[in-house]
């Protein structure tokens, strides 16, 4: 097992090649990795996350943000687990990156989904939590449900899983949309149990409904979609009462970034919260939205496409008014933005990936809580974690980036990829 105090700052001082990184963690990983785990009790708490934020005195307090409604103190940088082939080398690199990120003292948010890497990402996180052996109440763990995934470890295809679900009378063929997505309450309940088993947790801090609008709205239309969404929210409220999750939300790609005239894809956040209130009352547990924002996808802070109280405004504003926490995904567009340079004088970081993360965490919007970054190679982990030691920009500094005449430096012609 690892010790937080001994390895504090580890990933900032040691850089290993992928081959040596795999060798470093391989033996330990093989001993720990399982298809399911005995559940760890507990969940993230205010006191626990506050304690985590104090573990590394070299990290500015502004790196951590208090979330709406629950007062959890979460890192503005979190680790995602979407990318990578479903093989053991990628398992080990993800495992090592999670350990190094958490031990840095600057990452206490871990995000996954049951379909990521054919269920393997959840299981890798389960292994990493056991290797870390730090208090459960310091770490915030989220996953997602809705997609019908293959099982990469057991070699079970999606089509077989769908047949099994139908044969068990959990769902009907009509409940499966686009041959890949389901919001039926019985399916979501069974899938959550599977996620908890993969992660080895008694309680999940956050469960997102995964790309529900993107997967179902074009097929169903608004009325039928909202009806199914309400039933899904009812199930998630029940899961809260059962102690399986603490809160829920929606992980999205385009529905909250779409123009109002984009039929069967644009979704008002105001409408979603209205549904949550009808299902769960004023004390409902719909608290989070995950959506992409990056230098090439700036709609959240550049477009007034979300209706709120009869007027259109930015989703950042709507989220603040409704007290919905925003978690940002795809900060580098899967690596594409590593071809888009940013100036060092504005963003105060050496490495390009860290500059893009600094850009996003500095957007002057209190509704943005955490930026998720997928990282596995030790080199990338070390470079991205540079940002945790730098305070976010002030609002004036952020907006100065959009005024080139005020810059002291322009983006480099040649990228520094070291």
Entry keywords:
418 residues, disordered C terminus, disordered N terminus, two-stranded antiparallel sheet, 16 helices, TIM Barrel, alpha/beta, 8-stranded parallel β-sheet
Helix and strand topology:
Elements: H1 10-13, H2 18-32, H3 46-53, E1 64-66, E2 73-75, E3 77-80, H4 88-103, E4 109-111, H5 120-132, E5 140-145, H6 158-167, E6 176-177, E7 181-182, H7 185-199, E8 206-210, H8 212-220, H9 222-241, E9 248-251, H10 269-280, E10 286-292, H11 299-302, E11 306-308, E12 311-313, H12 315-322, E13 325-329, H13 344-347, H14 352-361, E14 368-374, H15 378-384, H16 395-400
Parallel strand pairs: 3-14, 4-5, 5-8, 8-9, 9-10, 10-13, 13-14
Antiparallel strand pairs: 1-2, 6-7, 11-12
Helix pairs in contact: 2-4, 4-5, 7-9, 8-9, 9-10
Q: How widely separated are the two ends?
A: 31 Å
Q: How many β-strand stretches?
A: 14
Mean pLDDT: 92
Biggest pleated-sheet summary: 8 strands, parallel
Strand content: 5-15%
Domains, number: 1
Q: Roughly how much helix do the residues carry, as a percent range?
A: 25-40%
Organism: Paramecium octaurelia
Protein name: NADP-dependent oxidoreductase domain-containing protein
Domain NADP-dependent oxidoreductase: 98-337
